[in-house]
Structure formats: C-alpha cells, structure tokens
Hints:
The complex is a heterodimer. Chain A is mainly alpha-helical.
Amino acid sequence: MNLKNPKTLAYAGSLGLGAMFGGVCVGILEGRTGHLPPAAPTAIVATAVLLLACATAIPLWRRTDEVAREAQQSAWYWGGSVGSCLAGGLAVYAALAPEAPILTRLGTVSLNGAFAAGLLACMMIQIAAFAVGWAIWWASKR
Amino acid sequence: MRAERGWSQADLAERLGVSRQAINAVETGKYTPSLQLAFKIARLFAMPIEGIFSDEDEAP
C-alpha cells in the first residue's frame, strides 16, 4: 500500500474514520443496552454505510473547486483545533464532575458506553466547530 | 474584462469549471487563485497572466 498516493490515502483515511465511527456506534449501543450487538450484522451495516459514504463523498470532492477546498482545509484546521480545545474542556469538566447532568443524560450503563459517548461528543463538537469555521471563511471572502 | 464580454460571474465560472463564489472571491481580490486556475483564466481571455493579475508588492 503506497500511502503517498492521494487516492490510497483517501481510502485509508475513510476506512479509519469509518472504523472509528462504527466503534462509537457499537459503544453507544452497548452503553445503552448493556450488550454488544452481534458482530457480523454490525460489520456488514458498517461496511455498507462506509461504502455509501465513499461513493457519495469521492465524486463530490472531485467536483469541488480549489476555493471550496481551501474553505474546507481552513475550516478543518481552525474548526478542528477549536473543537478539540472545547472537547478537551468538556473532558476535564466530565472528569472533575462525574455526576454532572450532561453525563447522566447520556444514559450509559457501562464504561465502554461512556467512552463511546465521549468520543461521539468530541466528533460532534469538532463538526459543529468546522461548520462555524466554514461559514466564517466564506463570509470573509464575500 | 468579464463584463466587457457580457459574461456573468456564473457564465465565467461555468467556462472555468469553478463555482460562482470562487469567481466572486477572485474578482474581489479576497482569494489568490492557484497557478493552474490563473493560467486557465489567462487562456480563456487570451491574455498573459501579468495582464490579468498584478503583484501587490510591485512598485507602481
């Protein structure tokens, strides 16, 4: 596998992200029910979702022009960094106040579930920060 | 140059294969295009790159 090839890198990155997202979903399910979902159907659904995501995202990215790519790059850099800081703050808050309502509302019954919920929260915060960064970038170019 | 040819931003964007927002950002000077896009623009207008873009640091 040549990771210097952008196409290979894109597929490898998608697989990594897909595996992480699939793991988070399984963790959330386990946290809510106390049981791990059956492995084979979970793997099939996760693979199907991943392939669908790749089939949608890759042509969309190829049609995206350089200005929109610059917007994405800037939004991931700034939005991702700010989102990470916010998620880090949330993690510190959760560690210092484990009985805080934000955690009990997640409805987890296991450590795996809490970990997955925390990971999901980090991803959501980063995506929200990305959206804000993206909007700011475009607003600055108007 | 674009207006002289009676093209809208959307027309030019379509000819260059970019979005209208990209054209707007380039025209307002808020985005510096890549060399690839700059050459594409120059070819479309049949002009040299320096006839279309100028260096801000260049002495007047």
